Description:
The chain is 35% helix and 21% strand. The chain has helices spanning 21-26, 49-60, 104-107, 140-148, 177-203, 233-243, 247-266, 292-295, 323-341, 345-360, 362-374, 435-454, and strands at residues 15-18, 34-41, 69-73, 79-83, 115-118, 127-134, 152-153, 224-232, 276-282, 308-314, 378-383, 390-392, 395-405, 411-418, 421-429. By secondary structure, it is of the alpha+beta class. A 6-stranded antiparallel β-sheet has the order 5-6-2-13-12-7, with helices on one face. The protein has a 6-stranded mixed β-sheet with strand order 8-15-14-11-9-10, sandwiched between helices. The chain has a 3-stranded antiparallel β-sheet with strand order 1-4-3, with no helix packed on it.
Amino acid sequence: MQFLKEEECCAEQQLLPPVSPNGLFFNSSAVSLVILAVFETEEPISLPSSRVVHLLDTRLLPVHPRFSSIIVTGEDGVKRWEKVAEVNLQDHIKTPVFPEGKSPEFYDRRPLWEFHLVKYPTLNAAGNVIFKIHHAIGDGYSLMAAMISCFTRSDDPSLPLTFPKNRIRRSSAAHGRAAFLSRALTSAVNTASDMWFSFSKTKFSEDDLSPIRSGDPAVGSRPVSVVTMTFPLDDVKEIKGRLGVTVNDVMTGTIFLGTRLYMQEMDPGSQAAETTAMVLMNTRMLQSYNSIQEMAEPKTTLAWGNHFAFLHITVPKLIGMSDGRALEFVRTTSATIQKKRFSLAISLTAKLLDLYRKLKGHEATASYLYKALKSTSMAVTNMVGPLEQMALADQPVKGMYFVVAGTLHDVFVTIVSYMGQLRVSVVAEKGFIDHDKLKSCIQMAFHHIYESSCH
């Protein structure tokens, strides 16, 4: 799919930097992923096309040059971003027309394309605004920066949208030479262990087939269903405070426990199945944190693009269910993520992949990463959204969620915060995953964890 209208190249066009390794991966013959961001409006959408064009022209295109660029291959064989002479926004604004008089359930089964104004009610909203952005342009964090440039605060457009503050968890280890040597040795051991686990998982072993992993090589092109659920952020923070973990740890542990409950219910024999999740971590937060407001400034180059790492996280096995076992999922998940988060394997793997790309080419590198994704059972990623209610050209937004299309997993879970709520979305393969039952199991898992930790 092409985002922008292709124009003939001219001498005045600006040649931008080469496409990053992650960008090449997401725009290869092996994988082509797009991010779909859905904004649910409180009222029926009444935006004329001309106003949408003006909004995108003045708010979205200035965010970053990639929104007015295409990928070209130079004479040296290097793929680069190249600005087009003109972006024809009318080609990329879609307002679908569906049969009238249908139920909200019917309109839930809508098509998803580049930019849609869906002027029909669903079970959750009076209308939907849908952005579809190719992953080669940037990751979900970059997408959020681009999206907020088109929105204003619903209560006061003159005030900026604000986001939860990121707090990087720091080690409380003792100082001194002995402590330094101990941490260095631990880091070296963890790095070697993490790199070997990731390499062996990609080259030599795959997860067991299970109720959430079909092993079908065509999984990325099969029809999917999307279900969402909402959790109060205050409840999640209460669990976080009681257990001394992060919000991300609580939700990832909830998803893991819910997944195991689903597997056990669908096939009791799968409770001990080897199951690994690919957790996508924003690497911008490893050393410093760039705010979404900074990234949304016009023509910014600050931390834009695909800056994330794939973490292989083993999903704990579920042998019996108890209150203590529910909390163990959160604690185990937290310990594993922290161990891997600060492992040198993340940066070393990125450098090795870049070297591999230079030696073998981006298609060979994409094939390697494709195998890494295919060897696991599920994927989990998250983003932060605004604290205040947003509005798009005076249209209040009551809810939002995002999904990743073209995924190589039968189950892909996304999480986003907005207005004091956490919205969890599950993309599941139709005909293989019972999405309603999986949703119910995740909700049940959260109930177990909340009751065990807070009562």
